[in-house]
Amino acid sequence: MHRPLRILLVGLTVLPPVYLFIMIQLGAITFPFWDHLALIHVIAKYHDGSLHFSDLIAPHNQTRPLTYRTIYLINAILTDWDIRSEYIYMYAAIYSLWALHLYALWRIWERKPDTSFYLTCLVATVFLFSPVGHNNHWWSMMLQLNLADLLIAAGLLNVALRPSSWPAHVLSAVFLWLASYTLTNGIFAFITMIATLQLSRPRLKELDRFVLFWIANLVCLLIVYLPGIPLEDGAARPTPLAMLWFVLVYLGNPVMSLLWFPYGNLYDLPIPTLWNGAVGTIVLAISLFTLWRAREELRTRRPEVMTLFLFSGFAVISATATAWGRAAFDQYGVSNANASRYSIFALYLTLGLVYYYARRPVRDGRLAVTGGRGALVSAAGFTLFLLLATATYVRAITVYESAHDFNELLANGYVAQGAPTDFDKYLFPDEKYLMDARAQIYRLGLGPYHARPHMAVRLGSDRFVEAVPLAGGTVVTQTFTVDRDELSNLTLQLVTWGRHPSWYTVAWALYEITDGARMPKAKGLISTRDVWDWKTVKIEPGAIANSAGKVFELEFKVDPGASTGDPVGLPLYAQKGDTAPPALIDGQPKPSGGAVGITLNYERN
What we know:
Blueprint: H1 3-27, H2 39-47, H3 53-57, H4 66-79, H5 86-108, H6 115-128, H7 135-138, H8 143-161, H9 166-180, H10 185-199, H11 209-225, H12 240-259, H13 274-293, H14 303-326, H15 343-363, H16 372-395, H17 397-411, H18 424-427, H19 431-444, E1 454-458, E2 464-469, E3 475-481, E4 487-494, E5 505-514, E6 517-527, E7 535-539, E8 551-557, E9 569-573, E10 584-585, E11 588-589, E12 595-596, E13 599-603
Antiparallel strand pairs: 1-13, 2-9, 3-8, 3-10, 4-7, 4-13, 5-6, 5-8, 9-12, 10-11
Helix pairs in contact: 1-6, 1-17, 2-19, 5-6, 5-8, 6-15, 8-9, 8-10, 8-14, 9-10, 9-11, 10-11, 10-14, 12-13, 12-14, 12-15, 14-15
């Protein structure tokens, strides 16, 4: 292969990844909206000390996004839910998938890259970074799809490259378990793996050890995964003909929409289905013909043949499952198959064919014609493909620009006090759900409300007098008066006397005192597991706009049955002024007359 041609092909292959990097920077949505808002309830439970593993693994529609939730929860803890940082994981998933495909192609070409290798890498890259899947680029919640795509591809390709290796099968099982706990499509990869491995057997009626291994994994997965999943979502079910046409449109979209881009903005759902359906029919027909012709080759378990069967099966199962749930979902019906986000798994069918047919002539020693009419036709067809794809990449810039404009519109939905706005319809259709989610974001000072200006006022003096052990059955109450509006949260410190405390929880509750009566305002838990000496703890009751002049009582209580051999302690300080009387321990003040060292934090709007 001539060096100038290699440099040209490598340069062209790098352009789509560079394009996507720039487009995500342009169109990234940085405010939570729609299903992305669901994360705040997990984040809030973490901050309130009430998060359990069951919250992470709980169903969302027909999937259990444990992996996605865990990654974004940890990121939210580290960044105060700065959604801009979530695109780091988006980039990592998308570019790791690209690297995985390039590595797989290099292995399929037996580590001997030639012209056909570089051409195949270019075609695969054009498809992998295609703006047809723009919905999976500008919305960070789509890590759920991008991560699942990466894990599924890793699981399938790992076995395709090493079909007789036990470590490869075990590692692929790990990938597909993680994929299933990211998106339900991971389960379809298990089914495809079992079918492909069984079809590759010399005797179809005999189950080998690898097939049994995958069957056992699938059975275990279904046992722990399906209970509690809402299998019926109340949507109408399509007719068989509607399902078939949906499948064809779904499978044709990644190809036809790359050749002629149909999307005008980020939410555009093209209604016509003829062209995508026609191309899907052609691609599926070629795939079925190829699978039939390659059935004997499958027994050799060569990587490109294994990839063909694994990718094709996964794409068709994904298309069929999506058709069952979406072909009659709403007024758009079968047109839902044109949705941008669905192209991510539909693409597997096309990639399986590209990898198989690109490698086969080289492997069989009958590389395409080097001159004459055949070469001209091939070159013309490849050039036309690149020109049409380039036009699509250029036309798609409008979509990312519309995402940028939409992001600015969403910003108006997060006003200073989290009050209702005229833009709420863009954030979430259910007003009650939105108000609750936005109030949680505001209360915790996360995401859009992270950079709010604050001022802090300490109630007690800086002179420490003693620390009260919060042992089992202890109740500590501190009354205080607030002297200004916009109370946001309270902070205080805990001590451990230089030891590692026992693991238990301290319940706190905030009451407003009105005419001698206690009116509950908020409550939460503090886990001593994460406490060290003089750690600052935040009490977050939610923003209280008209707080000036009001009297509150903060109560700390430890369950009498709690094991508190090495308890945490609540420091008391000498009083300063009359805003905070002495703290009461089990209803009585200490002789020192110390008050809990509370700092009141206010919003400054």
